[in-house]
Amino acid sequence: ILQKGTIDLKVTIGEEVFDGQVVRPLRSVNPNQSVYAGLIQAIDSDGENTSDYEFGITSLANKRELLQSGDPVQFQVDSKGRAANIIAVRKKLKATVDAIKGPFGFLKYEVEEGKKLFFHMSEVKDNASLASGDLVEFVLVTNQRNGKSSACSVTKLSESHCQQRPERLISRLRTISMDEGGPKLTVTRQPRGPDGTKGFSSDFRTARKSGIFSD
User: Fold this and answer.
1) How many Å apart are CA 128 and CA 122, to the nearest integer?
2) 116 CB-near residues (< 8 Å, 6+ apart)
C-alpha cells in the first residue's frame, strides 16, 4: 500500500509556446486507429521536426476541437512531457450566411457540388445573432468518421444591408404565385350603365328614406 502523499498529482505547465503539427489525431476523431492518444510533432524556427508529444482530450484548450492529421497547432508542454493548451492554427475563410434553420445554419460556401456548408449555432462566437446575408469568418473542418465537412469557430463580421421582405408579403406573393395557373379576368373597357353613362348615375347615389320605394 502506497503511503499518503507519495503520488504527486500536481501537473504544472511550462510557459514556452511551441509550434507543431498533428501527426496522429485522437481515436475519437479517427476510430480506425488502435492508440487512443494523439501525437504532435514540434517544429522549430527552421521548419525542422524536433520532439513528439502525446496529447489527450484534456490537452485541448477547446475541448470541442476536432484536431486532424496535418493540422498546424500551438501548444505548451506539461511536467509529464505531454502537450497542453493545444490551439489549432487553421486558415480562416469568409462567406455569407445562406439560411438559419433553428439550431443549424448554412453558409454560401460549397464543399460538395450543390451543397451549402453546414454549421451548428453552438459554433458561433459570442452567441451572435445571425441572419441570411450576414458576412462571417470561419474555419473549415472535415470529420474523418464520415468525411463530411462543416464550419466551426464562426465569427460574425457584418450584417446584411439587404432589406428582407416581411413574412406576410412573402406569404401573399406565394399565394399569388400558386394562383397563376387559374382563370383570369381581363377588363377591355370600363363598364357603362344602361343609359350609356359610366357607373351609376347621381340619382342612384342620392339618399333615400327607409320604408319608401320609388319607381
Assistant:
1) 10
2) 98, 99, 106, 107, 108, 109, 110
The superfamily in CATH containing domain 13-88 is: Nucleic acid-binding proteins (2.40.50.140)
Query: At which residue does the C-alpha cell 469568409 appear?
Result: 94
User: Residue 19 — φ and ψ, nearest 5°?
Assistant: -100, 145
pLDDT in tens, 157-195: 988 765 454 445 445 555 555 555 555 555 555 556 666
- Positive or negative torsion for Cα 116, 117, 120, 123: negative
Contact predicate 43/36, CB 8 Å: no
pTM of the shown model: 0.55
pLDDT in tens, 105-117: 999 998 777 789 9
Q: Which of 43, 98, 38, 91 minimizes the C-alpha distance to 66?
A: 38
Q: Which amino acid is at 136?
A: V
C-alpha cell read off for 145: 468518421
Q: For 78, list phi and psi in degrees, rounded to 5.
A: -90, 180
For the chain, give every domain's residue range: 13-88, 92-160
The CATH T-level fold of domain 92-160 is OB fold (Dihydrolipoamide Acetyltransferase, E2P) (2.40.50)
Residue corresponding to grid cell 343609359: 195
Rounded CA-CA distance 36/15 in Å is 27
Query: Exposure of 160 by Cβ count < 10 A (0-12 exposed, 13-18 middle, 19+ buried)?
Result: middle
